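Protocol step 4 of 6.
Sequence for GDSL-family lipase/acylhydrolase (Butyrivibrio proteoclasticus) entered exactly as in the expression construct, tag removed. Do not edit the line below.
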Amino acid sequence: MGLLLIHGGKSIRMSKDNFRKRNNGTKRSCFKEIMQGLGGKNITIISSVVIAALFVIILLVMFIKSPVFIAWRENGSETQVASEEMAAGEETMNVASGEEDMPVVETATEGMKAESTPDTTVLAKKENAKDGYLNRCVFLGDSRTVAMVNYGFFNDDAALAQIGISHPAFASNKFINNAGKEYTLKSYLSSHQAPVIYILLGVNGINDSSESHYQNTFISLIDSVAKMAPNSNIVLVAIGPVDDNGIYKNSVQNAWIDKYNAFLLETARQKHIFYLDIAEILKGSNGQVKPEYNGGDGLHYSGKGCEAIFRYIVEHPVPGISDEGKYVVKYIKPDPNRMKVTMDDGSGIDEGKIQDLMDMMMGTPENQTASDASTESSSETEEELEKKKAEEEKKKAEEEKKKAEEEKKKAEEEKKKAEEEKKKKAEEEKKAEEEKKKAEEEKKKAEEEEKKKAEEEKKKAEEEQKKAEEEKKKAEEEEQKKAEEEKKKAEEEEQKKAEEEKKKAEEEEKKKVEEENKEESEKKEGEKEENGNSGNSAGEALEGSAGHSEEETVNNP
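Step 5 output, structure tokens:
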């Protein structure tokens, strides 16, 4: 039995027995002898050829993944039907007989699409809801949706899903269902434009380091679905909770899920589409997935968990979509030869966990909700079942033996690796200690230089301040001296001017008195001439007057 893996854009077919790498001591010894026999020159030539071949393969893969090639491939056929060959001696599924009574999903017609409102974005519970609603729904999802098909809750043809697929890779991926039909998102929606399209993605790649990349690629996917199915109602399904201590704890945590569920709800509101909060029934009071719904790895859900999701979808339908009619599940058992797995960075799956995951995904239905659900085994005889069971048990025993050997080998490798890592860690610690010591010395040196520089700058600043103060003081003294000299000069000039004015006034006064005396004298002389010698009394009076004038002249120079 084989397994088809999608890894880094390449499809690799391998059997389960050869799925994990196998190397024993004999092979290593032979390889060592061959390498020694080849010689250095031949090894160089072979290495060059291998590198060149790898380069050609990488170019080919890049071309196959290019938009031009994808568009050409998709335009060739809207719906691609798989025709993979089964391994020799393996059982081949009768696809035709499974398709004869395969339920057909109803196609949306114009007017079925409704825009959500703030009150209807989150789908509410409907009383007495019927399973017939599922005849009008298709589901786009990852391994959790694959489990819903494999447990018999969704019809195989009503789901486009793949293990490990993340929403950024969904639009360009190629899918194959249990019946062997092969689709792309474009070819699937061209023939499956149901009244309701559920998008159950987001858990793979939730540890994306770029929040904007996660959100933008999700919005791009929603827009693509809306464009391809214009009459369909789109429902964003909440990302279900996990066990934070499960084996995928490094890839997904409930805190991340809560953050992106808030983003999905807000996106649904902005785009007027719908939001289904399945986390409401799956999450326990401690914020983790309920134990009865845990499939065992903390990420995937048990049969009871899938049943709870199924019932929640039925009870919370899109308003206006009929739930009449009988819902029938045609169960098709999954075939590991067809089952595809994505193991890129977005899936969060590694090779060591793939076998357990595949075993979980291959489980038969634990709970059948459809009234006439049937299994492929119904057409087999008891003898065939016993024979098949014996073969499976034998194979299982061989696989367990092989697994034990691989685990033993792995344990030895891990021990060796641990010792190497321990040695490497010790060297790194020593190196880190030396670097730390060096860093401390450099820091100390830098601090001393900084301190010295600061002291020099401080001293220089003080000297400059002192010099400035001295210059300021000198300038003030010179200014004061100059002001005093100017003041003294002004006072001297004022005093000189005052003395000159005083002297001038005195001279003018003296001149005035002299003129007055002269006039008086002339007047008296005139009177004397007129009166002559009129008597002694007049003369005396004249002498007295003259004497008096002389006194005034003396007293008032």
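Step 6, annotate. The radius of gyration is 55 Å.
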